[in-house]
Design a protein that fits this description.
Strand order of the largest sheet of chain B: 13-12-9-10-11-14-21-19
Number of strands of chain A: 16
Shape of chain A: elongated
Largest sheet of chain A: 8 strands, antiparallel
Distance between the termini of chain B: 74 Å
Structural class of chain A: mainly beta
CATH superfamily of the largest domain in chain B: ATP-grasp fold, B domain
Largest interface: A-B, 65 and 63 residues
Oligomer: heterodimer
Strand content of chain B: 15-25%
Radius of gyration of chain A: 22 Å
Structural class of chain B: alpha+beta
Largest sheet of chain B: 8 strands, antiparallel
Strand content of chain A: over 45%
Number of helices of chain B: 17
CATH architecture of the largest domain in chain B: 2-Layer Sandwich
Number of domains of chain B: 3
Helix content of chain B: 25-40%
């Protein structure tokens, strides 16, 4: 069987086939892997690759697979699904000309007005989520085109709180 | 002894207290908000009472609703856990009026130690060393400015009414003061319902060392030695340990005696914590009394062999302490890591959502106080703590290794957590050497990113491929009828080496 996964902006194709005794072969980017695998519980796998033991845990959401390998978590997105929602916080979340919050919260204080010139990294709005205040900073130098929320408003992830016209 | 206790809290701490109740043959009552119906604490208690909607002031901070739940269920005592109403003297006072036992200090002592400015005055008189700071709390930016100039920058801004780092900020210059004070007051108002703040001298490169105390209602008090809680982000502890690598026997004795003196002068009973800052030259300063069970109480339990929740309950029911200072000693080493739903790559921003899958670490010397489970939702309304992982070992070195291994084998999938970050902190050479200062994270782990290799990515792709291929062959269930037989039968007879 063939599957495509998106990691970051790269698409990976994997061909995988197994037999009744749990012997598998897989092809990733022209490299072939032979391994033994066992499905311990719906989310848990034991993999012996070149005799080396790996415990893998996998869970699936609508958009992504989450894999736990050797103490690390790798998110693999389904190509075509609207992945994201995690993004970065503050400065680097979302598009460069919009300021939005990665999680639901309350607008505590808008720090700029329409028409203001702002610097890259300048705090634009304070949003409270999970009882903590977070400053959302400008990802770019530019001009504030619109302020779409007021102090005290509730805001959902991805909603543009402030729109910018980048000068860079 | 009580027959029934209501736990006015949620999450891991509510469950911790409920388990203690069960061990003592006491029935437990949970309270919950609408979105917490499926939370683990509701399923752990013997009874559960709905008290309101999700926002804390409509449920877990709503005193009338909680008092009603106590009366309805016939509980004799309330355990407040930490956070929410734990240090609210008005709640303790209300319990006293209603004839309900508040498991904690009485409202008078709670009021005194909760008011950081008032408690400074009392402790200063007794010769307990304090950090230079404001005499009065304030809600006035100009007053804060003139006080800050008197104290000298950098200064530390704190919420007068609360703890847990909420509202706390370091202010390094006059230019930063106005915004910082305003933001601190807003956070204080939101978290504690009181915007008052105060300022004190900020001590660079300190360690945070606190002493656990227990005091009964008969005038007996003991300390259970120290916890070092220097590893912090956003001024909130994330790794705690006991013993501290910074204390000599002599210093430990001196600080323990000072902690008991604080307890004595404030008329404090039950379990509490006396917090100190320790500077590089072994000078220590009294910070505050945390009038509650602390998040990090398990490290003390592991090292001293005393169950603090059991003891709290017994003290509240009127029992005398059944051990004295000489009976208490530190044995081995314990570390706690706080597992939060947050993103260490993005300034530890909280991360809400559904836990698709998790598996708790186990093994000798591993304790996991947990408030969540596979499939549960982590809400944006409450503190993002998920659980606490505690390891104990005969030596600090083994304890660190044990913790690193437990963190390594702790999958939590679907939301961001600090697990990988904590593992990297624990195995950091400076942590292993015991060089733990409150600026550990900005100094040693700035801009932390998880290590990542192609090998990890390839194994992840293999695993996701495996998961998908097995899922694709599982019988699709529609209307309860299996349409496809066992995946193993449909898999064919492929063998290695055969075309």
């Amino acid at each position: 069987m063939e599957y495509e996964f998106l990691h970051g902006s790269e698409i990976y194709l994997i061909k995988i086939d197994g037999n009744l005794s749990g012997e598998y072969k897989a092809l990733i980017a022209d490299k072939e892997y032979h391994f033994s695998a066992s499905n311990i519980s719906p989310n848990e796998f034991s993999i012996l690759l070149d005799r080396k033991n790996t415990k893998a845990y996998v869970a699936e959401s609508d958009e992504s697979f989450y894999v736990h390998i050797d103490g690390k978590i790798v998110r693999l997105d389904k190509p075509g699904a609207a992945a994201g929602g995690f993004g970065g916080a503050g400065g680097d979340f979302g598009a460069k000309d919009e300021i939005s919050t990665p999680m639901p919260g309350k607008v505590v204080k808008i720090l700029v007005n329409e028409g203001d010139r702002v610097e890259s990294g300048q705090p634009l709005v304070i949003v409270e989520s999970m009882k903590m205040e977070n400053e959302l900073k400008s990802p770019t130098a530019g001009e504030v085109v619109s302020v779409n929320f007021s102090n005290g408003d509730l805001v959902e992830p991805g909603q543009p709180i402030i729109k910018l016209n980048p000068s860079e | 002894m009580f027959k029934k206790i209501l736990i006015a809290n949620r999450g891991e701490i509510a469950i911790r207290v409920m388990k203690a109740c069960r061990e003592m043959g006491i029935e437990s009552v949970a309270v919950y908000s609408t979105i917490d119906r499926n939370s683990l604490h509701v399923r752990t208690a013997d009874e559960a009472v709905w008290i309101g909607e999700a926002p804390p002031n409509e449920s877990y901070l709503y005193i009338d609703a909680i008092i009603n739940a106590v009366k309805e269920t016939g509980a004799e005592a309330v355990h407040p856990g930490y956070g929410f109403l734990a240090e609210n003297y008005l709640f303790a006072e209300r319990c006293e009026k209603e004839g309900i036992v508040f498991i904690g200090p009485d409202s008078k002592a709670l009021k005194l130690v909760g008011d950081k400015v008032a408690s400074r005055e009392v402790t200063e008189k007794e010769g307990i060393p304090l950090i230079p700071g404001m005499k009065d709390k304030s809600t006035n930016v100009d007053q804060c400015m003139s006080e800050a100039k008197k104290i000298g920058f950098p200064v530390l801004l704190k919420a007068s009414a609360g703890g847990g780092g909420k509202g706390m900020r370091v202010i390094r210059s006059e230019g930063e003061l106005k915004d910082a004070v305003e933001a601190g007051m807003r956070e204080a108002q939101a978290a504690f319902g009181d915007p008052s703040v105060y300022l004190e001298k900020y001590i660079e490169k300190p360690r945070h060392v606190e002493f656990q105390i227990l005091a009964d209602k008969h005038g007996n008090a003991v300390h259970l030695f120290e916890r070092e809680c220097s590893i912090q982000r956003r001024h909130q502890k994330i790794i705690e340990e006991s013993p501290s690598t910074a204390l000599t026997d002599n210093l430990r004795k001196k600080m323990g005696e000072m902690a008991l003196k604080v307890v004595e002068v404030s008329g404090y009973t039950n379990a509490g914590t006396v917090e100190f800052l320790l500077d590089e030259n072994s000078n220590f300063y009294f910070l505050e009394v945390n009038a509650r069970l602390q998040v990090e109480h398990p490290v003390t339990e592991m090292v001293c062999g005393i169950d603090l929740v059991h003891t709290q309950i017994r003290i509240s029911s009127g029992e005398k302490l059944w051990f004295s200072q000489n009976d208490i000693s530190q044995r081995g080493h314990a570390i706690e890591c706080r597992i939060y739903a947050e993103d260490p790559e993005s300034n530890f921003l909280p991360s809400a959502g559904k836990i698709l899958y998790m598996k708790e670490p186990t093994g000798p010397g591993v304790r996991h106080d947990c408030g969540v489970y596979s499939g549960c939702e982590v809400s944006v309304y409450y503190d993002p703590i998920l659980s606490k992982l505690i390891t104990w070992a005969p030596t600090r070195n083994i304890c660190c290794r044990r913790m690193a291994a437990a963190l390594n084998d702790f999958p939590v999938l679907g939301i961001k957590t600090d697990i990988e970050f904590l593992r990297d902190a624990i195995v950091h050479p400076e942590f292993l050497r015991g060089n733990t200062f409150t600026d550990f994270i900005p100094v040693n782990m700035p801009g932390w990113k998880p290590e990542f290799s192609d090998n990890t990515l390839n194994k992840a792709l293999l695993s996701a491929g495996l998961f998908s291929s097995i899922a694709a062959q599982k019988p699709a269930i529609t209307g309860g009828v299996e349409e496809i037989p066992s995946p193993w039968r449909t898999m064919g007879d492929w063998e290695i080496g055969k075309k």
